Amino acid sequence: MVVKRMLEQIDYFYSNRPCLGERVSGDIAIVEQQEQLLFVGIVDGLGHGKNANLVARTAKDYLQKTWDSDVCHTMLRLHDKLKGSLGAAVGLGVLNLETQQLSYTGVGNTVLKICRRQEQQNCTKRLYSTDGIVGSHIRHPVEQRLQLTKSDIILFYTDGIREHFSLEEYPLIFVDDTMKIAKKLIQLFGKKHDDATCIALKYQP
Ligand SMILES: [Mn+2]
Predict the structure, then answer these.
(1) Percent of all residues in the chain with a pLDDT value above 90, rounded to a whole number
(2) Is 70 exceeded by the pLDDT of residue 12?
(3) In whole angstroms, what is the distance from residue 200 CA to residue 130 CA?
(4) Cβ-count burial of 70 within 10 angstroms (0-12 exposed, 13-18 middle, 19+ buried)?
């Protein structure tokens, strides 16, 4: 499944493919905008197939209706909502399009990575998730903030994509559009035996 939308200052695309042998994915991506705030969420329901897909869809429905500017608050409420389910790894970000500030919190093994173009040397930055399973057990969520720059490529991905890769392995990431980036990350670094989802986002103030 692929979705593309162009918001005013944001260009994004997400790609989601189920693990080998499954028809539905236990991963899900959520992108929502309200005025100057852009909400981005990625959910990896535990396991694969129908049961994981149900958890992911429940989380998406809930987040679409209830997200707010406080990512930790949103995470805690989602944790309550998913109690009694299989649980999930979840990354939540809110980008303020006016201040260019990104707030993030994550629980479990989803990844948020920023690829940044710089004069000296291009670099990647990673924001960290805490241990736990949303819906089962979590520590108090921690909010991290990052000031974005114009050329940044923001990637949210699940653990069906190899956690660490270097820009040398995909040098065209700064050239490709978000559709190509999201698909390419799955193609290059996706693990066959897990659901794989990537949201690629470019910020263009
Ligand atoms: Mn997974």
Answers:
(1) 87
(2) yes
(3) 22
(4) middle
- Confidence label for 205 from pLDDT (cuts 50, 70 and 90): low
Q: How far is the CA of 41 from the centre of ligand 1 (A)?
A: 15
Site of tokens 């980036």: 181
**Amino acid (one-letter) located at 171:** P
The tally of domains found in the chain comes to 1
Distance 134 CA to ligand 1 centre (A): 14
Q: Are strands 137-138 and 144-147 parallel, antiparallel or unpaired?
A: unpaired
What is the value of pTM for the model shown?
0.93
Q: Rounded distance, CA 139 to CA 24, Å?
A: 30
Taking all residues of the chain, what is their mean pLDDT, rounded to a whole number?
93
Q: Which residues, by Cβ under 5 Å, contact ligand 1, an ion?
A: 44, 158-160, 194
Q: What is the 23 CA–ligand 1 centroid distance (Å)?
A: 15
CA distance 148 to 40: 15
Question: Could you list the residue range(s) of the whole structural domain that residue 64 is in?
Answer: 2-203
Distance (angstroms) between ligand 1 centre and the Cα of 158 equals 6
CATH of the domain at 80: 3.60.40.10
27 touches 42 (CB < 8 A): yes
If we measure between CA atoms, which residue out of 158, 202, 179 comes closest to residue 38? 202
